[in-house]
Design goal:
Elements (H helix, E strand, L loop, with lengths): L1 H27 L14 E3 L5 H12 L10 E2 L15 E5 L12 E5 L8 E5 L7 E4 L1
Parallel strand pairs: 1-6
Antiparallel strand pairs: 2-3, 3-4, 4-5, 5-6
Length: about 140
């Protein structure tokens, strides 16, 4: 009987650990980049963007046409990495990924009232997990 009780305790302990790991995994596994106290993110020079990023940036400045239907759609900033703004301030654009069958993970997100002359643009190579401000 004592042996059966010890087995049950071990099973419960394993289930508790697995349950805790399941609950905490989204928090522990996803480190979020947040703006500093000054509100700035790290930067990347336009010339440092991948070639496809420079093409996308040029298309933004020209007003298109864009290769993907979702390009120019509102970016909600749900990750809260970019500076807080009203909904509709940010728009997202796909940066082609060579060999990808879909839109891939790379994007440029620009903010401002005039899409062709945005206040600021940000590059993400990891589907919104981190951003770098594009500087010309």
């Amino acid at each position: 009987m004592l042996k059966a009780f010890a087995t049950q305790v071990r099973k419960a302990g394993v289930l508790w650990v697995l349950g805790a790991a399941f609950v905490l995994a989204p928090v522990v596994g996803h480190t979020r980049q947040t703006p500093s106290a000054a509100g700035s993110l790290s930067s990347i020079a336009l010339a440092e963007l991948p070639a496809q990023g420079r093409v996308t940036y040029a298309l933004i400045r020209e007003g298109g046409p864009f290769p993907y239907d979702k390009d120019g759609s509102v970016f909600g900033n749900r990750e809260r990495i970019l500076p807080a703004q009203q909904r509709g301030y940010y728009r997202e654009y796909t940066v082609r990924t060579p060999g990808a069958r879909n839109r891939g993970a790379r994007r440029i997100v620009c903010g401002g009232q005039k899409p062709r002359t945005p206040d600021a643009c940000y590059y993400t190579g990891d589907h919104y997990a981190s951003f770098r401000e594009i500087v010309e």
